[in-house]
């Protein structure tokens, strides 16, 4: 079972991964975006973990909802509302349970991902964060590790795609050949989840 502490550690691990890969995310974004994705994500997740360290919500859902609210208020551009929606809607779907299973998290994450799709008007294959999140949410029904693999494969699969949503869509065919930064940061989030589960002994 996954408690509030697990979700807090997940957000901390995500912040560490984003901080480590911030320059790479910005490099990817410089090719097809505003060259600020890494900086924005680092600022947002650093702020989210700081708030969690101060308040320590008592349920998994509350952890994600608090982190999501902080991302909305801290991250610039489209990423703040999108990531904030992902975490808040996932947290809301988890409800007030003090502990949840991986299967419950997978179902809740699916709700969060659907909310992101609705907010951004995007779908699979549009070269967005959904290309990592959709397969990850589905694979999480099997295991944390399969979710990580699915997210990373999804992010890599954005390279040959032409962007149909977001800033990159303005480039048309010139967006082809570049990995989507949003899908890449989403894969980092899922990888942090898998790593937290591994360290905690919460299953594969």
Which helices and strands appear, and what pairs or packs with what?
Layout: E1 2-3, H1 4-32, H2 37-55, H3 60-74, H4 79-94, E2 99-100, H5 102-120, H6 130-139, H7 144-156, H8 181-200
Antiparallel strand pairs: 1-2
Structure described in brief:
The protein is mainly α and 204 residues long.
List keywords for this structure.
single chain, 204 residues, mainly alpha, Serine Threonine Protein Phosphatase 5, Tetratricopeptide repeat, two-stranded antiparallel sheet, 69% helix
Could you characterize the architecture of this molecule?
The chain has 204 residues and is mainly α. It has a single domain (2-199), classed as Serine Threonine Protein Phosphatase 5, Tetratricopeptide repeat (Alpha Horseshoe). The two termini are 13 Å apart. Helices cover 69% and strands 2% of the residues. Helix 1 runs antiparallel to helix 2 (37-55), helix 1 (4-32) runs antiparallel to helix 8 (181-200) and helix 4 (79-94) packs antiparallel against helix 5 (102-120). It is built from 8 helices and 2 strands, in the order E-H-H-H-H-E-H-H-H-H. It is globular and about 50 Å long.
